[in-house]
Amino acid sequence: MKWSFTPTQVIEGEVVYSLEDYIRDLLEEIKSKVSKKEFDQFQEGEERDKKYLKAVKDVFNFEYEINFMYALKKSYLSKIVKKADDEEKKIIKKTIKENKANMDMLHAILMKRIANELGKGLTIKQAIKATEEYSKNLISKLNYTT
Question: Across residues 102-130, what is the average pLDDT?
Answer without folding.
Answer: 96
